[in-house]
Amino acid sequence: MNPRHFAVALLISFFSFASLNAGTVWIDELNLTTVEQEGGAPVKKLALGGHALTIAGQTFARGYSTHAESWLAIQLDGQARTFSAKVGIDDEVKGKPGGSVEFVVLVDGQKLWSSGLMRTGDAAKPCDVPLAKVKLLELVVTDGEDNNYYDHADWVDAKIESAGPSTFATVARAVSEPYILTPAPPASPRINGARVFGVRPGSPFLFTVPASGQRPMTFSATGLPAGLELDAMTGRITGRLTNPGTYAVILRAGNAAGRTESPLRIVCGDQIALTPPMGWNSWNCFAQEVSADKVKRAADTMVRTGLINHGWTYINVDDFWQNHRASKDPTLTGEVRDAQGNIRPNSRFGDMKALADYIHNLGLKAGLYSSPGPWTCGGCAGSYGHELQDAQAYAGWGFDYLKYDWCSYGGLTLGLAASDPKLPSVEWGKGTSNVDLAQKPYRLMGEYLRQQPRDIVYSLCQYGMSDVWLWGGSVAGNSWRTTNDISGNWKSMRNIILAQDIPAPWAKPGNWNDPDMLILGYIGWGNPKPTRLTPDEQYLHFSLWCLFSAPLLIGCDMEKLDAFTLGLLTNDEVIALDQDPLGQQARCVDTVGDVRVYSKKLEDGSVAVGFCNFGARPAELKYANLAGLRLAGRQQVRDIWRQKVVGTVTIGREAWPLVIPTHGIVLLKFTAVPAPIP
Ligand code: GAL
Predict the structure, then answer these.
(1) Mutation test of ligand 1: which of 321, 371, 377, 519 has the most ligand atoms closer than 8 Å to its C-beta?
(2) Among 280, 316, 319, which residue has the most ligand 1 atoms within 8 Å of its CB, making it the best to mutate?
């Protein structure tokens, strides 16, 4: 065959191949690894839990199941005719609370079809969308504007009718490049973190001086009260104080590159957690997959990465250290309590004291989780009826922090018996509007924790019910969640941010509003993947949590920390906002279009201001209302992330220019410039 004939033959065979295969392209035949969804991965031809795809009793052989919030994009390049599917929540979550979603179809960025709000049990809704000339098809599932609990969403019989190709490429979302703002800390020593530390008389004392800089480093202190000792090599202060009082200590650190000193106020009295706790919690990355080994590795990493040198302290085990009420997983089965009623850890944990010792030996502190009902949210053993025994067990093992949930207690307030096998484990934010009933389990555990011979930070996790910020401190709580759980996306975070203005005035040293754990780094509730927040959203997230004086709990797989995430977590000037001894939570004091202005007064009289852009486009403005920040006169302006002065401004006379990225923040500190001496 001459070359010309060969080329023609090739062309013909290509066309006949394409036309042979033109027709129906099933979505479950495409590469779905590009799907973005909350936790886990989409499942083809089955529901997420592995059952047949089933909507309101009707089963389907084809399609895919995903978890809201979910996004799939398919490149069509004008080659498709129609998209059709049926949609609904899978029956596998029937009887579980909270299943509600909206299915949305976007073509070339425009919303062309929506299912409207759908709940568990609703019959499958048909969806038919014309696609002529369309370049990009997007299939979206939202959380129905509540939360995404049990939002198992099925696109069944989902297919594209095509004139041309036999398959289509799915596309991954364009990611914006991470950029690091935090300057590398100098080789010379720098003492970071809290400048005030509370302890109760008689409690074991552990404070590791957080100091960045080259090792080896040596430590010393003046003004340490009798009963405390500082280890010169590790920088750990240990011992016990018997007398209440405030002690002004000067901490010193030195290495081959220099020396530094910094004040620390030790307050021995009734109140602990005088600054918001900082640490790590297992839930947002490992959830039910947690084990003692993973927790130890997280603790090791806290030290190895140097996070400990920036004030990060607690290593907190969340749910699933106990045995489960019904799991078939052999590592979670077994007696939940022994014959004397003592709680038994599951076989993944075994010796809890050994775990707490391991963490303490690294200079860190250890945290644990339980629930006031008989079952935790995950269905493991809770503390109901064994509160004192449990408080004693935690203290005996050496734990320093308790997160106390609400799950299965709501059922008790509604009249179900603790022994009722139908008592639901999961009931986020459900139960009682009666404040006395809402307080009861927290007051009880609070009293028992206070009776223990060690300080245990008490973190209430009842999602803000009965305005917990009004009474959380009176039941001995050191912090309280203000909302339902955070999930790994912008919308969830934004809704939580917008809910912080109401509780803000109640935050103070020892009593903190908790907007939930951080969603930076690799997160995913058992299947960790990089956070879906953009770099700008991550800057906004960490900045606002610090402005909010929030407990800072890293939620990611510590072993997968990258340079960008470490940059976010080690900016000492940003962390200093969170740890400021005044403990005033920032409030939104102004809005300009989509920009919300958060201001936080600091102990030294300066004011930190976060200009947050909630809009879908970058915002450029000259911000004139500086007087609204309750500032006066000439002010020095410092860019907190970049750790440098960027100018001065006279309030009332000048405006400040701002360029704020989409969903991003500009974080500034205003400090009065002393008037010149005449
Ligand atoms: C939820 C809580 C989560 C996690 C989970 C464990 O109620 O808000 O943060 O602790 O329970 O099952």
Answers:
(1) 377
(2) 319
Token digits of residue 677 = 């001496």
Catalytic annotation on 562?
Answer: no
Out of 141, 171, 201, a domain closes at: 171
Pairing of strands 58-60, 595-601: unpaired
What would the mean pLDDT of 425-443 be, rounded to a whole number? Answer: 82
The Cα–Cα gap between 32 and 172 comes to: 10
pTM of the model: 0.85
The verdict on residue 382 lying in a domain is yes
Q: Are 264 and 288 in the same domain? A: no
Alpha-carbon span 623 to 179, nearest angstrom? 25
Distance from the CA of 321 to the center of ligand 1, in angstroms? Answer: 13
- Residue 2, pLDDT score: 39
427 within 8 A of 408, measured Cβ to Cβ: yes
> What is the tally of structural domains in the chain?
4
**Site of tokens 């499958």:** 124
Q: Is 485 a catalytic residue?
A: yes
Of the candidates 143, 400, 485, 578, the residue annotated as catalytic is: 485
Mean pLDDT of 94-103: 91
Atom nearest to 516 CA in ligand 1: 9
Lowest mean pLDDT among 1-15, 229-243, 640-654: 1-15
Neighbouring CB atoms inside 10 A of 393's CB total 21
Res. 428 pLDDT band, cuts 50 70 90: low
Residue 290's domain spans which residues? Answer: 278-578
Query: Which of 90, 400, 405, 516 is the catalytic position?
Result: 405
